[in-house]
Amino acid sequence: MTTSFFRTALILGLLSAIGPFAIDMYLPALPSIGKDLSAENNVVQMSLLAFFISFAIFQLIYGPLSDMWGRKAPLYMGIGLFALASVGCALSNDIETLIAFRFLQGIGGAAGMVIPRAIVRDMHTGVQAARLMSLLMLVFSISPILAPLTGSAVISFYGWRGVFWAVTIAAFIGLILLSTQLKETRPKAARVESSLGSAMAAYRLLLSDRNFLTLTFIGGLGISSFLVYLANSPFVLIDHYGLTPTQYSIAFSINAVSFFTVSQLTGWLGDRFGLVRVMRMALTAFSFTMAAMVVVMALGFNQLPVLATFLFIGYGFLGLVIPTTAVLALEDHGEIAGTASALMGTLHFVTAAVAMVIAGLFFDGTALPMAAGIGLCAVAAFILTQVTIARRRVAEAEAAAE
């Protein structure tokens, strides 16, 4: 792999990480935000949910725009809005204002999530795309490692508002990299037939593509399992298990290390076994690990080391599921890669938002409801995969009989 291959992965990964960085970095501050703004924990969590809702919905806008205008112009718009909203978050004096600016921040951050995936599809397909996607995720996964630790350090010196000034700086760095280091990958000739009408037609096509939807929801349920952990872990690990914000940041980071380390095997395993088989094997191991975690904790073994061990193993397998499902879902939709990536991202985060709300309804301050939410997402992904495999085998048998 060439230097330019790694440079592209680095830039795309950093652009993708700007939005999630604004989540992970302020996770250690959630309890202190509630105290400072006199808000209950469930209200503080709304600042997280507001971000996810806009982050999910507005990917549907950026995808077609990137097909019509090229990849770079919508990225400029999104990251610029993200920077302005971050300033608003830093200056908020009540929880309602913070939630409103977090919603705007999600609108801007959505561009960084959807468009880099389309750029990957512009440049490569198959195993090469999986390699680039896994490298992108390597950079992207640095966010859950460094962001909470950085957030803890910033919070200790500048309070929770300092987090939003820091992500404002990160957004401006992203704009500089975008303008100086990234070339346009959607030439004008490819945009000629892209319009609002073609975008609607593309969405209709994608929504009727069972293979695309299945792979998207499998990946979405995997992501949901992580975001359920993300939304509840500050209260479980800090308030229930008694970790300090810095200790929490380290515990949170360990799972990201597992995720991105195993994800780097995607290309090698894909070459040897094929991407579909890698996805199925990883998903089976992921779901059984998380289901075992729920059973063990329900039996009374709910200590932090038990939870941490299962999460470390399970999220390692998830590191193979996410890039393979994304590449396989986009494989047949190169001409509408921006729109396909947008719908994928929206369905991922809508699924995650529903999972977060349901898990939040049962949250009681202990670890078991969070673990149950994670386990249910993993098992649902496994069931969906098995149903899809069975349906495909029946279709293949019918085709062979004709």
UniProtKB/TrEMBL annotation:
UniProt KW Iron keyword: no
Primary localization class, coarse: membrane
Domain named Major facilitator superfamily (MFS) profile: residues: 5-393
One Pfam family linked to the record: MFS_1
Domain of life: Bacteria
Gene Ontology process terms (BP): xenobiotic detoxification by transmembrane export across the plasma membrane
Organism of origin: Phyllobacterium myrsinacearum
Bilayer topology: Multi-pass membrane protein
Protein name (record): Bcr/CflA family efflux transporter
This protein's record includes keyword Oxidoreductase: no
GO CC terms in record: plasma membrane
MF terms in GO: xenobiotic transmembrane transporter activity
